[in-house]
UniProtKB/TrEMBL annotation:
Keywords: Signal
InterPro entries found in the cross-reference section: Expansin_CellWall (IPR051477), RlpA-like_sf (IPR036908)
Natural source organism: Polyporus arcularius HHB13444
Signal peptide range in chain numbering: 1-19
Protein name as catalogued: Uncharacterized protein
Length: 128
């Protein structure tokens, strides 16, 4: 019985430790890629995302070294207001993004809207 309780507690902690796995109502913008806060060198042709500071720094396991952030290397599916989506890899932090908003490479942004849009309102994302 004790083993069952311990196992249940461990599984519950693992499941609920990553509670912030989706957001909605944010904006998507695009930026010129380079060396991101995760320590990866990226190009504008890569399908990467910079996640807002509040989300990435409060993610379970996040510490002082942004290169070791557990969100780094994970994938998000970002969905635009029209229902089109793009899968991107977390590689950077967006210091100017509001919670729930993301900064994409131009290539990734173009999967959701034309670059002429500049800022796409009403996006959602899910961590996969």
């Amino acid at each position: 019985m004790r083993f069952s309780v311990v196992l249940f507690a461990a599984l519950s902690a693992a499941t609920f430790g990553y509670a912030q796995t989706s957001m909605s109502g944010g904006d998507a913008t695009f930026y010129t890629a380079g060396v991101g806060s995760c320590g990866f060198t990226n190009t504008d042709a890569d399908f990467i995302v910079a996640v807002d500071v509040a989300t990435i720094t409060s993610f379970p396991g996040a510490g002082a070294n942004p290169n070791a952030n557990p969100m780094c290397g994970r994938q998000l599916v970002v969905t635009g207001p029209d229902g089109n989506s793009v899968t991107v890899t977390v590689a950077d932090t967006c210091p100017t993004c509001a919670p729930g908003s993301v900064d994409l490479t131009p290539t990734a942004f173009q999967q959701l809207a034309s670059l002429d849009v500049g800022r796409l309102h009403g996006i959602s994302w899910t961590l996969i």
